[in-house]
Amino acid sequence: GAVVSQHPSRVICKSGTSVKIECRSLDFQATTMFWYRQFPKKSLMLMATSNEGSKATYEQGVEKDKFLINHASLTLSTLTVTSAHPEDSSFYICSARADPSTGRGQYFGPGTRLTVT
Amino acid sequence: KQEVTQIPAALSVPEGENLVLNCSFTDSAIYNLQWFRQDPGKGLTSLLLIQSSQREQTSGRLNASLDKSSGRSTLYIAASQPGDSATYLCAVDRGSTLGRLYFGRGTQLTVWP
Hints:
The complex is a heterodimer of chains A (117) and B (113). By secondary structure, chain A is mainly beta. Chain A is 0% helix and 55% strand. The relative contact order of chain A is 0.33. The model of chain A has no long low-confidence stretch (mean pLDDT 91). Chain B contains no helices and eleven strands. In chain B, strands 2, 4, 5, 9, 10 and 11 form a six-stranded mixed sheet that branches. A five-stranded antiparallel sheet of chain B has the order 1-3-8-7-6, with no helix packed on it. Chain B is globular and about 45 Å long. The mean pLDDT of chain B is 93. The chains are: A mainly beta (117), B mainly beta (113). Chains A and B meet through strand 5, strand 9 and strand 10 of A and strand 4, strand 5 and strand 9 of B.
């Protein structure tokens, strides 16, 4: 199956600092990438959708100035958590979607555990 | 709005049993449906993808069926093993330009030796 990587897998940062998480599709070009947040024992919550070269579409209630998304190429999207607070501590997962004409679904990264102290 | 429901929420069985996990969705106009597996603290692993024109897909001990008209999908796991213990999620792609997935809450499966 397709491979999507995330970096870092774990990060601990202090309140007020910013953290960048990278999501890469390693063996296919992703027309669209998605960022999710997952709280313990809960399902995934979609935060935003990003298409290469255009602005991200954020879900209702997600602060776009706090969670900056950049989709610079067909294989890379980044999520920057700005001015992090302890309540931003969570598990962040990205997914990548190939062109629908390929008949492929979505593939998920391994996730990034963010802890804000 | 597409709503996805999974039943049961949790399932605990002895190894060797054949299992059926259920997924239902409210809007039958879907592009595809995927079944994923998630281990604790990990990302999602795609198990099976069923296109809207297909009725089922098989991979090893896993078989997923799709009945679009009734808004249902089932994941069948044959001869379950302790290594199958995980949370199983189904997700529907409506095929819009954005292509977002609509997830169920998952079925937490425990297979004990």
